[in-house]
Specification:
eight-stranded mixed sheet, about 30% helix
C-alpha cells in the first residue's frame, strides 16, 4: 500500500512553514522530502509493504552522494513531533546552540532522567544504572544514561565494558561538546576498558561518535516492533502489553503477526544500528 496522504500532507506543510526550501522527491517506491538541501526525510507509512533491505540500500545510495537520509515512520511523527522537528532543525543548523563548557555536570535521579528522556528522546526512557545531566543556570539541558560496567571474559579476565544507552538534549537545542563532557565525567567515575554505544541507522550516520574518538564496530540487524494504532506506542515482541500477551497465549490458532494485526497492531521495523566502541586504555 502507498503512503498515507494525511501523514504526507501534515509533515510537508509543517516543514514548509519552517524552511525556505522544501521539495518532494518522487523515487518510487520511496516518498522523500528534501529540506534545505541538507537532509532527505523518507516518509514510511504504517501500512508500508517495503522491506528493511530496501531502506538500507536507499541509505547507502544517499550516503555515497553525501546526503543524510532519515527514515521517518508515521507513528514516530504522530507521537514524537517535537523531537522529530528538533532533530531536523539540528541537521539544518537551526537549533539554538549552547557550548558544553558553560554547563555543569550533575547526577540526576531515575525520575528526572525518565521525565527528560520521555520528553526529548525519540526512543524515550530505558532503565540504566548511572544518570548524568548538564545544567545551565539551574536548568537541565542534556541527559546521558549509562549501563553498569560488566566483565567481558572473552577479552580478558579483568576486562570491563559499559554502555552509553541514551543521550538527549532539550528539544530545540544543540549542546556543542555536551556529549563528550558527559562521557568524560562517566569515565572518571567508572573504570572500564571500553564504552560501547549504538547509533540508530534510521536517524544517524554516527558522525558524532566518530568525532569523539569512538571506533565503528559494525552494523546490527533490523529490529521488528509492533505499533498499537490507537495509542501509536511501539512495542518489542517480548514487551507487549500484558493483556495482549495473555490473550495471544490463550488462543492457539493465529501466529503472532496475524493475531496482532487483528487486534489493531501494525508491524514495523528499523534499519538496525551502527555499533561503536570507545577504548580507554585502562
Amino acid at each position: 500500500m502507498g503512503l498515507n496522504p494525511l501523514f504526507q500532507e501534515d509533515f510537508f506543510l509543517t516543514i514548509q512553514d519552517r524552511y525556505r526550501v522544501v521539495e518532494n522527491i518522487q523515487a518510487h517506491p520511496f516518498n522523500i522530502v528534501a529540506v534545505e538541501n541538507s537532509v532527505y526525510i523518507n516518509l514510511v507509512s504504517l501500512n508500508a509493504t517495503i522491506l528493511p533491505q530496501q531502506l538500507q540500500s536507499l541509505q547507502v545510495a544517499c550516503q555515497q552522494q553525501g546526503v543524510l537520509l532519515v527514515h521517518l515512520w508515521e507513528d514516530v511523527w504522530l507521537n514524537k513531533r517535537g523531537q522529530v522537528l528538533s532533530r531536523i532543525h539540528s541537521f539544518c543548523g537551526k537549533n539554538i546552540s549552547l557550548h558544553g563548557r558553560k554547563t555543569k555536570v550533575i547526577t540526576i535521579d531515575t525520575a528526572t532522567a525518565k521525565a527528560f528522556l520521555q520528553a526529548h528522546h525519540l526512543q524515550g526512557y530505558i532503565k540504566t544504572k548511572f544518570n548524568y545531566g548538564l545544567s545551565l543556570n539551574n536548568e537541565l539541558v542534556a541527559v546521558a544514561c549509562f549501563a553498569a560496567a560488566r566483565p567481558m571474559k572473552s577479552k580478558g579476565d579483568d576486562y570491563r565494558s559499559a554502555e552509553l544507552v541514551r543521550f538527549a538534549t532539550k528539544t530545540g537545542y544543540t549542546i556543542t561538546g555536551g556529549l563528550g563532557k558527559l562521557v568524560k565525567h562517566f569515565l572518571k567515575q567508572v573504570s572500564v576498558n571500553d564504552l560501547m554505544t549504538y547509533a540508530d541507522r534510521d536517524w544517524s550516520l554516527g558522525k558524532g561518535y566518530d568525532k569523539l574518538g569512538f571506533h565503528f564496530s559494525g552494523n546490527t540487524d533490523p529490529v521488528t516492533f509492533y505499533v498499537d494504532t490507537n495509542s501509536m506506542e511501539r512495542y518489542y515482541a517480548h514487551r507487549l502489553p500484558k493483556k495482549i500477551a495473555l490473550a495471544f497465549d490463550e488462543q492457539k490458532v493465529l501466529n503472532l503477526d496475524d493475531f496482532l494485526s487483528q487486534n489493531g497492531f501494525s508491524k514495523v521495523f528499523n534499519t538496525g544500528n551502527l555499533k561503536y566502541h570507545l577504548y580507554t586504555n585502562v
